[in-house]
Amino acid sequence: MYRSRLARCQKLMSEREIDILFLAPGPNMYYLSGFLEEPGERLLSLIVPQSGEPLFIVPQMYEQQVKAFTWVEKLVSWRDSEDPKTVLSATIRQVVTKRPTIAVDNRMWSQFLLMLLAVFPDARYLDAASVMNLLRIKKTSEEVALMARSAEIADAAFTETVKECREGMTEHQVAAKIVNEMRILGADSVSFEPVTGSGPNGALPHYRSGDRKLQRGDLVVLDYGCVYRGYFSDITRTIAVGSCDDERRKVYSIVRSAQEKAYQAAVEGIEAQSVDKVAREIIEAAGYGQFFVHRTGHGIGLEVHEEPYIVAGNSMKLDDGMAFSIEPGIYLPGKFGVRIEDIVVIQAGKAERLNKCTRELVVV
Amino acid sequence: MYRSRLARCQKLMSEREIDILFLAPGPNMYYLSGFLEEPGERLLSLIVPQSGEPLFIVPQMYEQQVKAFTWVEKLVSWRDSEDPKTVLSATIRQVVTKRPTIAVDNRMWSQFLLMLLAVFPDARYLDAASVMNLLRIKKTSEEVALMARSAEIADAAFTETVKECREGMTEHQVAAKIVNEMRILGADSVSFEPVTGSGPNGALPHYRSGDRKLQRGDLVVLDYGCVYRGYFSDITRTIAVGSCDDERRKVYSIVRSAQEKAYQAAVEGIEAQSVDKVAREIIEAAGYGQFFVHRTGHGIGLEVHEEPYIVAGNSMKLDDGMAFSIEPGIYLPGKFGVRIEDIVVIQAGKAERLNKCTRELVVV
């Protein structure tokens, strides 16, 4: 599997005249090498030449560990007392002699790109996303199976959490419950710190959680996910505490309808922006257009946000194997927010939801 | 507080002839602005000019949220359907007219530095760490208080977790227990995915956790921490399951002695590398030098790893307010590992431990 990914990668590099990929710990390194690690301040990089074998530059303390998880055989290690810039420079000079074109991992910490700029000021620098996103955008059935398991864990955490959610609990306690359920079910980590925005906090789309207690009449936006063997899930449900007034029910119903219609519109061959348009038009027609302040969705896989983005201006055509979120929302500043999100994968020409838990309004 | 940090920052920028700081979501942005967020694929940046007011570039959906958490008044927002490169270019051109010197957040994702390189190919680029690390390296008493609370949560999680750790539990279950305890106690997130390396897995210094079950006679390396209001904790304890043979006890005792002696050596005015040397010499004298494959410690605060690094070659003198780990270890490949780590802060001339839980070998 890794050999075939490498071959496709090097073919794209050749077409784009890229001499070297300079990759950092994260999804791109994992996709090509099998080694998964968080970014850190020590230089740990996978160098992929346009032809021939890739190689790792690793801090000595990671040597055993990288070897245990990757098929890549070439490995250069450096000690904490050495200057990694020297190792980087020598390694890249072995691969290329002329003025190189280097594609840099979009998520690599800038300190390493600055290190490279100091060593090769005249190189041409590109974003490695131009290659890696093309490779990663269409998921294989093995990848979809892992994503489905990741979504299933997130679904189960919702079902378990709402059983215990009550007026008086803090947002923080709700978040702790969600995270613990996902870990018990086998999640390796969280996709991001959960959003448990209650009442007016729900109107901040990327609020996380705080000490506010759930109050009767609140809507609470729960947006979270987990990582399972490298693959991300991401789900949003909005629940009501104790009761739900007419205005909140109305907004909920508009968002639910927008989400459903966008889901039905997501078929092979249509442009990503068309899915956004479907959701947006429903919310605009209901008079809430100005309160839907974000795109309708984002691709997902080894990153929580990746291509394809479901956003105005993106004319990319949806294709089998593409996985993305559909998550319209309405945010009334100072009052409340509603968002409903599922991950879908295009399979046999149409979108299939990976998240199966209820989209009915749950009142706890 | 933020005004005084900004003044110190701009003074350093002036001394170093830096026109602009280009900061990303993370510790540097939080330190200067009060706004704490994880990095993401949308351009969200704090631009600090050498004189005058800083300003935020934010995705529109973050506008309310940034305003709610920062004292910074100037804010430029962009919509998902716009090109952030245009906004970035226009914003920076308003601040500087000549060829600028731009210091880039060391942790900013490279995609944003590549975006900047495309707009200002002739600018001089530096690492913003040269300024930000100087500001952040000496903690105030308010910062130490938050770090002490963060450490206290980590300590309590150890005490609670070992009560339930038993032969037959998986590493993953131990990690889930640790994380849940920290969240219940008020942690906002984890410092990093916990290390719960049992038996031979303990010999991989940065192993995380897996499905291996704890076995009688194992040593288990527990290395984890939490984030409390932006401040990181980090602790390592090594425990034994059921029983502990003589070789493991001996190695434990060497590591414990190295950790204690390094702690006593950490006083104001001595070089960071001297602390490393003290720990290393004890382990070398015991014949395990080649198995101590990493530095003795790292600074900590708004990042889990920051300056000062306790490593050979670092002649930085320890000073009041500096916070760092002391964490010698011995790793016998294929057999087991031992590491003991506390966070200390230099106060009134000498190191004080923030971690108070037992360093005696706990057998569960």
Looking at this protein, list some descriptive labels.
3-stranded antiparallel β-sheet; 6-stranded mixed β-sheet; 10 helices; alpha+beta; homodimer
Could you please describe the fold and organization of this structure?
The structure is a homodimer of 364-residue chains. Chain A is an alpha+beta fold and 364 residues long. In chain A, 36% of the residues lie in helices and 22% in strands. Chain A is built from 10 helices and 19 strands. Chain A has helices at residues 2-15, 27-33, 63-69, 84-95, 110-119, 129-136, 141-164, 171-184, 246-265, 272-285, and strands at 20-23, 45-49, 55-59, 74-78, 101-104, 124-127, 189-190, 195-198, 219-224, 226-228, 231-232, 235-240, 297-299, 306-310, 323-326, 329-332, 336-339, 342-347, 350-353. In chain A, the strands form 6 sheets. The first copy, chain A, has a 6-stranded mixed beta sheet with strand order 4-3-2-1-5-6, with helices on both faces. A 3-stranded antiparallel beta sheet of chain A has the order 7-10-11. In chain A, strands 8-9-12 form a 3-stranded antiparallel beta sheet, with helices on one face. In chain A, helix 7 (141-164) crosses helix 8 and helix 9 runs antiparallel to helix 10. Chain A is elongated, with a radius of gyration of 22 Å. The mean pLDDT of chain A is 95. Chains A and B meet through helix 3, helix 5, strand 6 and helix 8 of A and helix 3, helix 5, strand 6 and helix 8 of B.
